Amino acid sequence: MSPAHEAHAQLAAEDAPLSMQEHAVVSSPAYLKAHPDLRFRQLGLAAVERDKPEDARRYFRLGAQHADKLSQALMAELLWNGKGGPVDRALGYAWMDLAAERGTEWLVVRREQYWAALDEAERKRAVSEGQKLYAEYGDPVAKPRQEREMRRNMGEMTGSRTGALGSTVMQVRFNGQMVRVVPEIYYAPRLWQPDAYWKWQGQQLAAGNSSSVDVGAPHPLRGD
């Protein structure tokens, strides 16, 4: 295969839906340990399902620290609706503005709905709160946190400073059964390499909609 064909095949693979093996990988404890964005999002959603919104706020904040935009949007909803604590619409807007940082269409729409509902005093405070949130949770600081976790854990699992994959076939549990996964799939670029990973996460986020942040009936994005 020519380099051009190889590049095309790689791009096609990155855009394709997750295979069963990849679904098994991203559901595995080892993978989630290395991806706190997804781990804390899942814990937050589970807390919502158990009617534990205080716990959900804590988990979504941790997911937000690792650049998970859905965690940030869910945090906004909890604040806006007063679940797990007092109603705080100004701070809820600030979190939703942060969630829409990458220009994801449905999050931008939700942000504008929030803004339209605020009064002038709330808008002023929302801008102030937003500046603080961006300093702690914006992509320029949150993405590097996530990338450090991925690099560190990948190095531990491969047992090599160079990240050599080796040839060992792994087994991960998925839907109650063990699935055999070759290293090339377990360590696929879109699951581990920052540029490809953020592109994949962007695709998952864009495929969501406003129901994905309904804290009364949470819906994880496909592929998580």
From TrEMBL:
Gene3D superfamilies given in the database record: Tetratricopeptide repeat domain
InterPro entries named in the record: TPR-like_helical_dom_sf
Name of protein: Sel1 repeat family protein
Organism: Stenotrophomonas chelatiphaga
